[in-house]
Amino acid sequence: MKKLLCMLLALLAIGSCALAETENAADEAVLNIFTWEGYIDYETVIKPFEQETGIKVNYATFSSNEEMYEKLSAVNGGDYDVVLASDYMLAASREAGLMQKIDKDIVTNYDNLDPTFMSQSFDPDNEYVVPYVCGSPLLIYDPSAVDCEITGLNSLWDPSLKDSIGLIDDARVTIGMVLLSMGESMNTTDDEVLAKAAEKLDALKDNVHILEYENLHNYILSGDISIAYTFTPFIVLSLDANPDLQIAFPEGTMGFGVDACFIPVNAPHAKNANLFLQFLLRPEIGASITEWQHYCCTNIPAREILGESYTENPVFSGIAERMGDTEYITYSTPENEQKYQDIWTKFKLSLQ
């Protein structure tokens, strides 16, 4: 009996210590952010948040959505307070129980978000995520360096573009582009359709000069390539640097994506995380995010601050006009995701 009593007292002591540690962590003036390097600007977002709240921000990075998911799963949705990642991996994280609901008693400006980007597959009831930026991959090209008419995605297969195009180094995005060029869904799991997409992607290899995730605008500005399929901000940066460049939109459905913030289920500083989300949704902060990121703005009052520099930008306005025919990349199953990765791996090996 005495041994049993001692064991019970020891267990209670351990439990009390663990509870105390949890409570102490929750009270810390700390916020742990997990996202891509440089994705949240220090000077215009993090620094003013720290100065206003006294909360110290720690910034950890990942190189891909898949890496984020693996690391967050390994700590059971703990360690980090705010994660900023892409829509399809948001869905996987929510379905795996790695998110907690936003505290809208703290995040009182949630309605600043454009309803266009709400109620999506990654958060159908608008309970878990705060859209940060959004956009569409588009074509940008130098009209003086191409010998064919660029009318849409299928123009990439023109033989005159041999060794002169740049593509996004991402399986789901670029295979998705191929599927859209075929009139198919970016999210198909049909083996026959995927086999045809693999064949069409393989037929593009002679035209591909470079695969890059973020720096394709530098290649087109330097003249190393004549056309690129790249993300919204790099289209904007390219046009700012060289107004003679031109953009082309997909012939039909346009791929579209949202990067958004969420609070992990076991975030050690959940209150601080909600305070940060509330801070991000302020109109002036939303405007600074757009000016820094060059993505489409998800915050309606922020667009009013940006004014004509936003509304008359041909990239942002062109995407807005086509929002009625867009498709998000969605997460399926590990088995189906692997199908895309296998196609992509084979394609990249063929380029070597």
Task: Give a description of the structure.
With about 350 residues, this protein is of the alpha/beta class. The protein folds into two domains: about 10-130 and about 260-300, D-Maltodextrin-Binding Protein, domain 2 (3-Layer(aba) Sandwich); about 140-255 and about 315-350, D-Maltodextrin-Binding Protein, domain 2, CATH 3.40.190.10. Helices cover about 45% and strands about 15% of the residues. The protein has 14 helices and twelve strands. It has helices at about 1-25, 40-55, 65-75, 85-95, 170-180, 190-200, 215-220, 230-240, 270-280, 285-295, 300-305, 310, 315-320, 335-350; strands spanning about 30-35, 55-60, 80-85, 100, 130-135, 140, 165-170, 210, 225-230, 245-250, 255-265, 325-330. The strands form two sheets. Strands 1, 2, 3, 4, 5, 11 and 12 form a seven-stranded mixed beta sheet that branches. A five-stranded mixed beta sheet has the order 8-7-9-6-10, sandwiched between helices. Strand 1 (about 30-35), helix 2 (about 40-55) and strand 2 form a beta-alpha-beta unit. Helix 7 packs parallel to helix 8 and helix 10 packs across helix 11 (about 300-305). The longest helix has 26 residues, at about 1-25. It starts with a helix and ends with a helix. Mean pLDDT is about 95; it is low at about 1-15 and about 15-20.
Low-pLDDT parts are 1-14, 16-22
Distinct helical segment count: 14
**Helical coverage, percent range:** 40-55%
Counting DSSP E segments of at least 2 residues, the number of strands comes to: 12
**Rg, please?**
23 Å
| Count of individual domains | 2
Sketch the major β-sheet.
7 strands, mixed
By CATH's scheme, which homologous superfamily of the largest domain applies? Periplasmic binding protein-like II
Q: What is the overall shape?
A: globular
Structural class: alpha/beta
Order of helices and strands: HEHEHEHEEEEHHEHEHEEHHHHHEH
CATH class of the largest domain: Alpha Beta
Distance between the termini: 72 Å
How does CATH name the architecture of the largest domain? 3-Layer(aba) Sandwich
CATH topology of the largest domain: D-Maltodextrin-Binding Protein, domain 2
